[in-house]
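Predict the holo structure. Ligand: zinc ion.
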Amino acid sequence: MSDITNASAPAPAFPGGTILGYPRIGRMRELKRALESFWKGASTEADLESVAKEVRLANLERLAALGLGRADSSIPSNFSFYDHMLDASVAFGVVPTRFKDYELEHGGFDLSGYSVIARGEGDKAPLEMTKWFDSNYHYLVPEIGPESTFELASLRWVDEFVEAKEAGFVTRPVIPGPLTFLYLSKPSDDAPTGFEPIERLDDLLATYDDLLAELAAAGAEWVQIDEPILVADIAADRSEVLANAAKAYANLVGLEKRPALFVAAPYHSLGDALPVLKDAGVDAIGIDLVRGSVPADVDLTGATIVAGVVDGHNIWRTDLDEALRKADAVAALGATVTVSSSTSLFHVPHTLQGEEHLGEELLSWLAFADEKVAEIVTLAAAREQGEHAVAGALGEARAALKARAEHPGTNRADVRDALAEVDPGWFERGPYSARAAAQANRFHLPELATTTIGSFPQTPEIRKARAAWAKGELSDADYEQAMKDEIASVVRLQEDLGLDVLVHGEAERNDMVQYFAELLDGFDVTKNGWVQSYGSRCTRPSILWGDVARSAPMTVRWAEYAQSLSDKPVKGMLTGPVTILAWSFVRDDQPLGDTANQVGLALRQEIADLEAAGIGIIQVDEPALRELLPLKKSEQSAYLDWSVNSFRLATSGAKDDTQVHTHLCYSEFGEIIDAIDGLNADVTSIEAARSRMEVLPAIRSHGYERQIGPGVWDIHSPRVPSTQEVTELLQLAKDSIPGKQLWVNPDCGLKTRGYAETTETLTHMLEATRAVRGV
Ligand SMILES: Nc1nc2c(c(=O)[nH]1)N[C@@H](CNc1ccc(C(=O)N[C@@H](CCC(=O)N[C@@H](CCC(=O)N[C@@H](CCC(=O)O)C(=O)O)C(=O)O)C(=O)O)cc1)CN2
Ligand code: MET
Ligand SMILES: [Zn+2]
């Protein structure tokens, strides 16, 4: 431990175990509802603040009841109204100047201004949103330039600490670390070429100094500084990253007035950053022992290690024996060890309570956030008092693990046999030139063909109908009719607008993954297992526990019906294997590639059925292809092999004159362009509007020969781009991609949008297309 810390040395770190963070959305999604009501103008800022406070206090009470220490900083304070990176941008006073008008007189933003930065308004584009490490969570990208001024502009972290203290808890505020903050930032629009946000490290550190002093003054004994960037191989030179880490933590450790520093590095191994943090003298280091490991020869004498032995990112019940072995192995390297989750628990739902419909057997294999906290408390007790003290809990865990391994559904002969019969030819389609000719002949599409990504607005009426159907209040026939009416109206709208390739709108899908999980063998779904994806938006990741097989067609009826309503092609719409895995909680007892091929085979059968029903264009979405890319370079090529192969297995049975589309969201395509090429889809739509077509030059220089639809409308925000704005983006796209290869479409599906902005923007998109086509 450092010898230059504050007067009273910190107590041993979190002796009864801890977690790196807890779900923020509320057990019944109270925060989601309060936010959306505030945005609609149906409630006030004070109403929203009061719901948020209730959620925070309920979480504290819950965590203490589950056994985390009330007063020893074991409970993290990690609340956010929308996103923790946005909070950091606001707190450090580095909000882009386009939001100046929304700033309060004394600095900082109220919740209306904060929401505008997140969601945009009028001509103010919001901060860009992108994936948080290898998860389905999205953060808002800070924009930093040489002129950005850093100052402590919000004391929310301090206020929330004080609020907890007044309620009888000494919590541990959780703050994004300076390296993670800057390396995940993008240069502001006015920054000169070549400028990197990390150049502003010294200025940012001065603001952390002020923040840590405020936290110490408020009585915080520990602060958690999250530095997941240290586990990822990023573009920056590793030695530069390590030098910056050494500098940043020497600075923070050397402060006179600060809480003890717990630096957490979830999602993989710290590698050579571990000794850097140790030598800097931070008071505790959090390591991920689920995804990552510690080399057996590292000397941890004198270090305090918060050992992440319970998976924060998946929902399987922990092998407690293995967890104890991992913690012991770190202790054997000389460290003082306490047990923790490997990542924040905000990647998993609150609790298994209320999920009894899953059945006792499956339930006994699972642990959501609250059950994980209980596991951690058990592990801490085992380490403190000896295993005999928790013999009952250890025995139960062993029995559940054994039952899971022996369950017939995890090892089905029919599924295994079908995969064994797959031969290499099943991964190959005919040459693109022949496909392109056959498709041109069949569809006669114009240059700059227009389409959408699949979903149309999921209106409250659609959701209400589905909720009523689930409760048995609406009959199967009435639900079916309601969805057909919706599909008919979506098809009519697209014909009126003049789109070239139509979609059915996905009204019948609760979610693009859960819908398939409900129809495939090997999955189960939760009733209330919500996990935040971004802002107020949540998903219920399905549980992929067994061998996957298709017992009946899943989409054919809907696709056939939609196609019957129009002479234009209506795309069949499927979700690809990688995305189905990524957005489910996936079994951890076999290689992901094997599971992906099981899903791929089921989709291949579905595509054959769609073709037989006369569907000529079939889109297989893979928005999560980039998301699962391993954080370590050394693991990426193996991943890209199996992921691309599973898509090819799904799609390569398609006939030459069937046009296969795929869709990917979330930029940074540069690094996976070979994989995109490898998917071998005839048409690929990608997200590009928020980053103003940034990726296209890379695609052009790659010599990409197939068709591509760079998004011209950022659908993540309710704002309506003008015809001129869309025209400019389209023109930019045309500068990089020949018209023959270019499609016109939004960035992503429209399910989160309303009809007003959808109709208006699609009208602008079609006007822009006509302008650029020159007709
Ligand atoms: N799994 C997944 N991950 C993804 C995406 C995605 O589409 N799916 N898209 C990208 C962006 N992320 C997104 C994540 C969620 C949503 C989204 O729209 N979520 C909806 C919920 C979607 C859903 O599951 N809907 C269900 C249940 C809806 C619901 O809340 N029903 C009410 C009852 C109905 C009522 O009376 O209103 C309830 O349960 O309380 C349905 O339609 O059936 C939300 O948070 O509001 C969009 C994008 C990346 N990751
Ligand atoms: C997150 S990717 C979404 C693709 C899907 N087809 C949709 O339009 O909603
Ligand atoms: Zn998308």
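The longest strand covers residues 542-550. The longest helix spans residues 476-497.
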